[in-house]
Amino acid sequence: MLDGPSVAAALEDCGVSHVIWVPDSVLGSWEPALSGSQRPTLLRVCREGEAFALAAGLVLGGKKPVIFIQCTGLFEAGDALRNAVHDLKLPIFMLVGVRSYYAHRQGKSNDSCPVFTEPILRAWQIPYVVFEERHTAADLAAAYRQAQAERRPGAVLVAE
Amino acid sequence: MMTQQQALEIVKRHRNNRVVVTTMSAVPTWAALSDSPLDFHFIPSAMGHAPDLGLGIALARPERGVIVLNGDGCMLMNLGSLITLANHPANIHLLILDNGLYEVTGGQPHAGVGHADFAELARGAGIRRVYSFDNHDSWQAGAAEALAGPGPAVIWLKIEGRLGQQTPKPPRPMSEQIARLQAALELPG
């Protein structure tokens, strides 16, 4: 299971320089650990599209940012994602909270977020992996390192 | 009022060794004035996101400094970036080149024409250094101060609109731009 302290420590171990985020209710619980960390530095933006352009600028300047957002923000940020990943060809890595994932799987939710999150990522050609409760910060670090080693974008979907 | 070319000629005099990020209609004008590897033409771009991209470079390379040449239509697409700039102090100067038009799509007016006050928007977002210039003489006289000093700073320039502009193209492919920029920033490729 992911939590703030273990995620912050794993990202620091990976050499991540910045976490750019618009939190959701699950990721938001990691705020104390992330905001208390000198590395990675937490950068707050107003809208998720900003996160991708800010990450692009940081990568151009030699840094290693990651993006933490909710799936709703992923939908909003499509043009900025497309530009950073496919026009600029930058290896942007993101962690995306998927609202209502478990409830949807059990047929107990009408929330459309889990219906569209994975098809959207496939459409944008972003390799991704779904993290459920058994996954840990070590798994997150491994997913990040693999994407960086292959110089490609990547996403971790956090089931909520 | 001044032309875009007049406005950017003054920027060129004061850019020193900073990264200059351009987008949309400023691209061909700046490319005709400068061919530095520290010029980054954000074309193709994500709509309205040149300030965020510039902020990222400024945060990554605080010793360098960044000037962003943004349009008024672009600014309206991403007003939240003013808040983000204020929240993360960095050596960045954001110029809003206000011609009252979506110039690259044929010159249609945008939703803010006649009532959007970019200086007040920037101040309201928490930017402390905000400047406005609506003619060539005042910009020429004030540019040294406005473009110096700590960022973030927002500089609102009223310029003449142009009709019949072509869709802007960067002077070289994006991969080449990135390689040049990163070499100039002394980063490994």
Write the layout of secondary structure elements.
The complex is a heterodimer of chains A (160) and B (189).
Chain A: H1 4-14, E1 18-21, H2 31-35, E2 41-44, H3 48-60, E3 65-70, H4 71-76, H5 78-87, E4 93-98, H6 101-105, H7 113-123, E5 128-131, H8 137-149, E6 154-159
Parallel strand pairs in A: 1-2, 1-3, 3-4, 4-6, 5-6
Chain B: H1 4-14, E1 19-22, H2 26-33, E2 39-41, H3 50-60, E3 66-71, H4 72-76, H5 80-87, E4 92-98, E5 101-102, E6 108-109, H6 118-125, E7 129-133, H7 136-146, E8 153-158, H8 174-184
Helix pairs in contact in B: 1-2, 1-7
Q: Can you tell me about this structure?
A:
- With about 160 residues, chain A is of the alpha/beta class.
- Chain A has one domain (about 5-160): Rossmann fold, CATH 3.40.50.
- Chain A contains eight helices and six strands, in the order αβαβαβααβααβαβ.
- A six-stranded parallel β-sheet of chain A has the order 2-1-3-4-6-5, with helices on both faces.
- The longest helix of chain A has 13 residues, at about 50-60.
- The model of chain B has no long low-confidence stretch (mean pLDDT about 95).
- Chain B contains eight helices and eight strands, in the order αβαβαβααβββαβαβα.
- Chain B has a single domain (about 5-185), classed as Rossmann fold, CATH 3.40.50.970.
- In chain B, the strands form two sheets. Chain B has a six-stranded parallel β-sheet with strand order 2-1-3-4-8-7, sandwiched between helices. Chain B has a two-stranded antiparallel sheet with strand order 5-6.
- At the A-B interface, helix 3 and helix 5 of A face helix 3, helix 5 and helix 8 of B.
